[in-house]
């Protein structure tokens, strides 16, 4: 029971480094921190693990570690791990922490380590401990789990050994600004459910220029001379450039972006063996899609073949199976689209990295809290005390998305149900 409860705990780790923006007042002297960066290979068995993705390798999966400590008091430190996995699973988090506590007693704990997945959809499966992904992957694969934990710990070991004085600066650019200087991230995502977005109140949508977040935010890690040792960027786009019929293991577009940025910085190093570390972390991913051309019907022989899918329901001739999102390289292949979306993010990061950045100053602190989401008690604005319900999954979840359509007669925007629909919901969505 304790274990079951544990699975429903929502784990929240927030890192606070005070970012003071003074550039219009006076230049701020950059503050010194101790910084460490490292890369570890986390690719598990690339064949014969899961049902969808198991015939070989397109690109290895890696963990990139970013370590920030106070120069005066290095025990005040935060460790951010960006994993080329679908999710920063709590079982993986526990495994990494257990190994780190053995190797570096008292240094790393759940309160100062964040484990984040890039949310690719083509990685080696079998490491997640929750029911739904275990059903789709047909169980737990210890070899995959061990590869992710061990490789992540290797990344931390390098970052830890690599700890050296340096400074951090931060930059943020929205797509439209970047496109002026030719470094656009504007074209790296779209909203895959624009009709759902339109259901927001007009007063809400009036706040935004786009129906999707186009911001990229980047932390630049400098050595004492100001040379970049690497960066950690945040941008929102699903790792679904490769379609759900892909059978090769890959880090998808964020894995590609990291590879391109690292190889550009150190062209003579082997991939994954660079000292320059490029982090492309996922942010508010929601309904973002890398399939930026839009969703079209692939219905050979039907009158609607090649036409845009129905706007509200993402269907073709009334069903959703034929409605597929297209990436910018769709005429060539989904691998071409993956390359383009990876390049677009890598160029966006490069643009921010080499642009005007604000020095980061302040102390290094982290906050961590477990929240039991199914019975979280809180107070409404009108003073009533209320509590959240057990988790539930809307059955239109089974419609999948235009990045990976579901099956049978589930469609997006549908809102009626039958008991067997409720059961089937578990089995019929790939995304
Ligand atoms: C998983 O693999 C590790 C390392 O080989 C081993 O120590 C552990 O006992 C295995 N766990 C299970 C459940 O098989
Ligand atoms: C994979 O799916 C895409 C999108 O539907 C399709 O264009 C492509 O032909 C499929 N590839 C294979 C190998 O079936
Ligand atoms: C989509 O649904 C909205 C709200 O029900 C409706 O106003 C609109 O006409 C629909 N659009 C299309 C293209 O069917
Ligand atoms: C406060 O708001 C909730 C939700 O609208 C409502 O159910 C509740 O009755 C309200 N409580 C009071 C004291 O008005
Ligand atoms: C379900 O959708 C129909 C058709 O769009 C709408 O008329 C109805 O109000 C919706 N029901 C609920 C419970 O949202």
Automatic annotation (TrEMBL):
The keyword Metal-binding is assigned to this record: yes
Name assigned to this protein: Neutral ceramidase
Binding site for Zn(2+): 119, 238
Biological processes, Gene Ontology terms: ceramide catabolic process; long-chain fatty acid biosynthetic process; sphingosine biosynthetic process
Cofactor dependence: Zn(2+)
Pfam families: Ceramidase_alk
Signal peptide feature range: 1-30
Residue ranges constituting the Neutral/alkaline non-lysosomal ceramidase N-terminal domain according to the UniProt record: 33-422
Single annotated GO MF: N-acylsphingosine amidohydrolase activity
């Amino acid at each position: 029971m304790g274990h079951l409860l544990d699975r429903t705990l929502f784990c929240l780790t927030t890192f606070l480094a005070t970012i003071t923006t003074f550039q219009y007042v006076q230049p701020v002297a950059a503050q010194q921190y101790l910084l460490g960066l490292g890369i570890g290979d986390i690719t598990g068995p690339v064949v014969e693990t899961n049902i969808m993705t198991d015939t070989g390798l397109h690109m290895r999966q890696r963990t990139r570690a970013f370590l920030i400590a106070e120069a005066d008091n290095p025990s005040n430190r935060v460790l951010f791990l960006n994993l080329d996995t679908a999710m920063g699973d709590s079982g993986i988090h526990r495994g990494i922490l257990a190994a780190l506590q053995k190797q570096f007693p008292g240094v790393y704990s759940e309160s100062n380590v964040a484990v984040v997945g890039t949310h690719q959809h083509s990685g080696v499966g079998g490491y997640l401990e929750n029911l739904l992904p275990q059903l789709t992957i047909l169980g737990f694969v210890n070899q995959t789990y061990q590869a992710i934990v061990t490789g992540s710990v290797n990344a931390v070991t390098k970052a830890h050994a690599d700890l050296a004085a340096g400074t951090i600066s931060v930059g943020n650019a929205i797509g439209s600004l970047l496109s002026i200087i030719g470094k656009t991230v504007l074209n790296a995502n779209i909203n895959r459910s624009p009709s759902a977005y339109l259901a927001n109140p007009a007063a809400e949508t009036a706040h935004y220029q786009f129906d999707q977040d186009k911001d990229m935010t980047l932390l630049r890690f400098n050595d004492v001379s100001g040379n970049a040792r690497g960066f950690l960027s945040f941008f929102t786009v699903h790792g679904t450039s490769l379609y759900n019929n892909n059978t090769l293991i890959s880090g998808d577009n964020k894995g590609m972006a990291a590879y391109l940025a690292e190889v550009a910085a150190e062209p003579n190093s082997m991939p994954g063996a660079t000292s320059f570390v490029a982090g492309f972390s996922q942010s508010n991913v929601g309904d973002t899609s890398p399939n930026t051309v839009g969703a079209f019907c692939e219905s050979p022989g039907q009158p609607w073949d090649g036409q845009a899918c129905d706007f509200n329901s993402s269907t073709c001739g009334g069903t959703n199976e034929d409605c597929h999102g297209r990436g910018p390289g769709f005429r060539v292949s989904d691998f071409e689209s993956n390359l383009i979306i990876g390049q677009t993010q890598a160029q966006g990061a490069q643009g921010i990295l080499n642009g005007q950045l604000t020095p980061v100053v302040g102390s290094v602190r982290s906050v961590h809290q477990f929240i039991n989401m199914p019975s979280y008690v809180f107070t409404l604005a009108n003073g009533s005390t209320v509590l959240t319900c057990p988790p539930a999954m809307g059955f239109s979840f089974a419609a999948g998305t235009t990045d990976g359509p579901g099956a049978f007669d589930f469609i997006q925007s549908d809102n009626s149900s039958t008991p067997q629909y409720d059961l089937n919901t578990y089995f019929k969505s790939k995304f």
